[in-house]
Design a protein that fits this description.
An eight-stranded antiparallel beta barrel has the order 3-5-6-7-8-9-10-11. A two-stranded antiparallel sheet has the order 1-2. It contains two helices and eleven strands, in the order αββββαβββββββ. It is α+β, with helices and mostly antiparallel strands.
Length: 143
């Protein structure tokens, strides 16, 4: 009986160790946790060559906080659009699919250590002649 318990214990340790270092879509558990600040928040038109970075143009700010102490990791964000509008959203990280959800929007994540890019191809933006479909590309730095 002791041998069975010892084997079960050793098996449990090896399984837990494997989980802690599992890599899915280049993420290891906990890789995206922390506080992130956007260096660019760009809208790219899906119908023309127009592109606008609201951080550069309007002085917008965007912060993202990822709490990876819970599963699934939870996310909170604040966008100050530079024109008087502030939007707070919350959501989750899907580490299997590499998606961060903020409110109703889903962003594909590309992560490289202390840099992360969020992309949402299903947005809208007015580039000057009415709202058109656009892709949002947010470049973030971990602080």
């Amino acid at each position: 009986m002791r041998a069975v318990r010892r084997f079960s214990f050793l098996l449990s340790i090896s399984l837990l160790s494997a989980c802690a270092s599992d890599t899915i879509l280049d993420f290891e558990i906990g890789d995206v946790g922390g506080l992130w600040v956007a260096s660019s928040y760009e809208y790219v038109s899906n119908v023309s060559s127009a592109r606008i970075d609201i951080i550069e143009r309007d002085g917008a700010t965007f912060t993202l906080s990822v709490d990876d102490s819970v599963q699934p990791p939870t996310v909170g964000s604040t966008l100050d659009d530079g024109a008087g509008g502030i939007t707070n959203r919350s959501g989750t990280v899907d580490i299997r699919d590499g998606i961060i959800t903020l409110g109703d929007d889903s962003f594909r994540v590309v992560h490289d250590k202390d840099f992360m890019t969020l992309t949402n191809e299903a947005s809208q933006f007015d580039f000057g002649s009415g709202s058109v479909t656009a892709t949002v590309v947010i470049a973030l730095d971990r602080i």
